[in-house]
C-alpha cells in the first residue's frame, strides 16, 4: 500500500472510531463522567472533522483521478502497468478531408506524425518510481516504461505539470517529415500547432507484454496550422503521389476502418484520436 493509501486508511479508521464513540456517547451511555464530556467528546469531534478535511484534501488533489488513485493505492498497488506518454499531430489539408500519415518505423502501418515525449534534465524515473524503461539504447529517455500501479497517480500528476519533460512537438515533426525529405526545409522550417484535446486510457486491462496487467496511455493531440506555402506544398505532394512507402494521404473513413489502398495497407488504431 502506498503513502496515499495509508493516509486514507488512517483517516477512515479515525472517522469510524470517532463516529462510533459519539453515537455511543449520545445514544447509549447515561450519566457519563466529566472526562467524557470535556475530553473524549472533543477528541472525537476533532477526529471526525480532521478525517473529513483529510479526505477532501486527498480527493481534491487528485480531482477526476481520485477513484483510479484509490484503486492503485489499495487494491492493485503491485500490478505491473505499461505507461506511454506521447503526442500526435493532426495534419489535415485545408478545405479537404485528407490527413497526412507517415509509415511507422517499428510497426508495418501508417500513423500520425508524433511519438512519446522525452525526459529532459536530471529526472530519474528508475529511482523515483522504480520504473523499468521500455526503450532502446538510442532512446533511453523516451517516456514509455513499466511501473507498479501504486505510482500511476504520481506519474499522471507529474506529466500534467510539464516539468522535466519535453513540452514541444517539433522534434518528431522534424524527424518524421523534414529529415526524411517528405516536406521541404524551406517551407517547414517552423510550424504552428494548437493542442486540441488529450486522450487518456488509464489502467486499461492489457497483456501485450510479459507480466503486464494494465496499460496507461496518454496522448496530447495537436492540430498543425498550415500557412499558405505549407498548404500548397502538401497539396502538390498529394496530387503527385498520394501514397508512398513513406507517407500517405487518407480520409476519415479509411482511418476509422484502419486500412486503405483496397485494404492492402494498415492504419494504426491510435490514428483515430486525431479525427
Outline the structure in words:
A hairpin with an 8-residue loop joins β7 and β8. This protein has two domains: 72 residues; 197 residues, no CATH class. The chain is an alpha+beta fold. It has eight helices and eleven strands. Strands 1, 4, 5, 6, 7 and 8 form a six-stranded mixed beta sheet that branches. It is elongated and about 95 Å long.
Fold topology:
Layout: H1 3-27, H2 34-62, H3 66-75, E1 80-90, E2 99-103, E3 110-111, E4 113-116, H4 125-129, E5 132-133, E6 144-148, H5 152-161, H6 170-178, E7 192-205, E8 214-225, H7 228-240, E9 247-250, H8 252-257, E10 259-260, E11 265-266
Parallel strand pairs: 1-8
Antiparallel strand pairs: 1-4, 1-6, 2-3, 2-9, 5-6, 7-8, 10-11
In summary, what is this structure?
The chain contains eight helices and eleven strands. It is of the alpha+beta class and 275 residues long. It folds into two domains: 72 residues; 197 residues, no CATH class.
Helix content: 25-40%
SSE order, one letter for each helix or strand:
HHHEEEEHEEHHEEHEHEE
Q: What's the N-to-C terminus distance?
A: 40 Å
Continuous helix count: 8
Shape: elongated
Largest sheet report: 6 strands, mixed
Number of domains: 2
**Beta strand %:** 15-25%
Mean pLDDT reading: 92
Provide the structure class: alpha+beta
Taking all Cα atoms into account, the compactness measure Rg is 26 Å
Extract low-pLDDT stretches.
none
Task: Give the beta-strand count.
Answer: 11
Q: Features of this protein?
A:
275 residues; alpha+beta; 2 domains; 6-stranded mixed sheet; 3-stranded antiparallel sheet; 8 helices; 23% strand
